[in-house]
Amino acid sequence: MPERIPPMSSKKFAKILTHGGAIFVRQKSTSHAIFEREKEGDVYRAPVVAGKREISPKYMKMVLRQLGFTDEEIDALL
Question: Does the keyword Nuclease apply (predicted)?
């Protein structure tokens, strides 16, 4: 299980997702950005709240799971 995930801004979280192999897909006039990650032939997509100063660790863990990150990958990213 990943260690405690620190709260961070949505901008920093987006950089972490990009570093982990997720790509920004789109953001129209909504408050959510869509990220996509391909892993072993499967495509995972998840919405990420944009423009927030602080995102809760629980929300970040949920997004990381939706994008198919394993415990080891999460630990390596953080």
Answer: yes
